[in-house]
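Design a sequence for this backbone.
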């Protein structure tokens, strides 16, 4: 299913073991226009920190009622990258490796986010 990206802002995110927060924005690969990360503002459980969630973690076809469930636990979210990671070399390398893993193609975009 194709969706307008602005319609996904505000969607709730749910880990395997509880709520995470809400989608606030996206990082794109601007060469092929695929979503690299969802930027999720966490709720009070993580002091409102903004975290990065790969679209590969989304559970395909389960985005009902304005919620995206992911295959991650809250502990994995806590230990994962946050918005401040974006300027590090590791972040930039992970962008490219994610894109390469997805064949840098819109046809391989997880969960209908294309």
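Sequence:
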């Amino acid at each position: 299913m194709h969706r307008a990206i602005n319609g996904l802002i505000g969607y709730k995110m749910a880990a395997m073991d509880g709520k995470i927060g809400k989608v606030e924005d996206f990082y794109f690969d601007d060469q092929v226009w695929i979503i690299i990360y969802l930027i999720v503002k966490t709720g009070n459980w993580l002091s409102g920190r903004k975290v990065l969630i790969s679209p590969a973690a989304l559970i395909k076809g389960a985005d009902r009622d304005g919620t995206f469930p992911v295959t991650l636990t809250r502990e994995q979210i806590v230990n994962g990258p946050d918005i401040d990671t974006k300027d590090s070399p590791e972040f930039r390398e992970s962008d490219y490796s994610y894109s390469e893993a997805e064949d840098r193609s819109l046809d391989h975009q997880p969960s209908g986010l294309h």
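The helical segments are 74-79, 89-101.
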